[in-house]
Design goal:
Layout (H helix, E strand, L loop, with lengths): L1 H18 L1 E6 L4 E6 L4 E6 L9 H36 L6
Antiparallel strand pairs: 1-2, 2-3
């Protein structure tokens, strides 16, 4: 029964996470990446001044850095929302957790 309750709480927390978003801004706001709590990138904003046809590598680096930072923010959000539930399941000695 305790496991079933934790599973229900986990599903509820995952549904709530999917509705939340996190943002990461890099390059002094040149690139902003938005991700949802499920870890999907849902938006990328690029400032016009970040687009230099003679230096596409800089923009590529900014986008990559923004995506990585957004995904780190998602992991922190997931840990804060799901950490307790997963910790409780680990305490029960369930495999794979």
């Amino acid at each position: 029964q305790q496991v079933q309750q934790m599973q229900t709480e986990m599903v509820k927390a995952q549904e709530e996470l999917a509705k939340e978003t996190v943002e990461a801004s890099v390059g002094g706001g040149m690139v902003t990446v938005t991700a949802n709590g499920s870890g999907e990138i849902v938006g990328v904003k690029i400032a016009p001044q970040a687009i230099d046809p003679d230096d596409p590598e800089s923009l590529e680096d900014l986008v990559l850095a923004g995506v990585n930072e957004a995904l780190r923010n998602v992991q922190e959000l997931q840990q804060s929302k799901l950490g307790g539930a997963v910790g409780g399941l680990k305490g029960l000695g369930l495999p794979g957790l």
